[in-house]
Amino acid sequence: MKKASVVIVLLFLGLVFQGYSQTAPKDFFAGAWEISVFDTPNGDAKLKTTLTRTNGKLTGVLSDANNPSAPKMTIEQVIENPDSISILFFAEGTDVNIDLKKKDVNNLEGTLMGMFTAKAKRLGKP
C-alpha cells in the first residue's frame, strides 16, 4: 500500500509541474522562405528572405532568387497576426506589400499587392 501511495503522489506532482510549466511559443514566421509570385507583367518571380526577430519585430531583406547579383530590397515593415503576415517593402519606385496566410506548417498563400498570386515555402526546418 505504501508503494501505491508513493506512486500516486509522484504522478500527482508530475501533473502539477507539467501544468505549471510553460514553453516558449514557436516563432512560426521567423526563418528562411522562398516566395513565388505568379503572372506578373515581368513573368513569374521568386524572392528569398530570411525573417529574423530583432527587438520583438521581424525584419529582413528580400533578394531575387534567380539573380543573386540583383540589389537586395530591405523589408520596411512586417505586420504579424496569428495566422497571417504582411511584408512591406519598396521596389522599383513603388511601395509593395505581400500578404500571406498559413496554409500548413511549411507553406503560405496569398497575394502581392492584392493582384498577383503569391506562395511561400519554408526553406529548412520549422
Automatic annotation (TrEMBL):
It comes from the Bacteria. Keywords: Signal. The keyword Signal applies. Residues 1-23 form the signal peptide. This is DUF4488 domain-containing protein.
